[in-house]
């Protein structure tokens, strides 16, 4: 699976969600696996790597227990992916 395809899948799933809602990286892996559902687990490291790249570009946030974390790859345990918080207009 190419990195660009994974990044596009992440952004597409986030775009389908209401503002403030998150996705699980496994949703991305399952969507990419399609009919080969047994293949989604091996895709998880690539999905986390792609999430890190997108977070580095400011295109998403990686959350753990509702808090932004520095890295999807280094986070231990479940994470969620979210659109970046809108800048304050105050």
Keyphrases for this structure?
90 residues; alpha+beta; 4-stranded antiparallel sheet; 3 helices
General description of the model:
With 90 residues, the chain is of the alpha+beta class. It has three helices and four strands, in the order H-E-H-H-E-E-E. It has helices at residues 3-16, 25-33, 44-56, and strands at residues 22-23, 61-64, 67-68, 80-82. Strands 1-4-2-3 form a four-stranded antiparallel sheet. A hairpin with a 2-residue loop joins strand 2 and strand 3 (67-68). Helix 1 crosses helix 2 (25-33), helix 1 crosses helix 3 and helix 2 (25-33) crosses helix 3 (44-56). The longest helix has 14 residues, at 3-16. It is globular. The model has no long low-confidence stretch (mean pLDDT 92).
The profile of the biggest β sheet is: 4 strands, antiparallel
**Helix content range:** 40-55%
| Main sheet: strand order | 1-4-2-3
Low-confidence stretches: none
The rounded distance between the terminal residues' Cα atoms is 42 Å
Number of helices: 3
| Classification by helices and strands | alpha+beta
Radius of gyration: 13 Å
The H/E string reads: HEHHEEE
Number of beta-strand segments: 4
Principal-axis shape = globular
Arithmetic mean pLDDT: 92
Quote the beta fraction.
Answer: 5-15%
């Amino acid at each position: 699976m190419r990195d660009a395809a994974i990044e596009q899948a992440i952004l597409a799933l986030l775009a389908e969600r209401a503002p403030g809602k998150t996705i699980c990286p496994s949703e991305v892996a399952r969507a990419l696996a399609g009919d080969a559902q047994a293949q989604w687990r091996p895709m998880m490291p690539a999905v986390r790597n792609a999430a890190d790249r997108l977070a580095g570009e400011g295109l998403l946030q990686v959350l753990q227990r509702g808090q932004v974390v520095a890295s999807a790859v280094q986070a231990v345990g479940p994470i969620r992916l979210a659109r970046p918080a809108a800048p304050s207009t105050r």
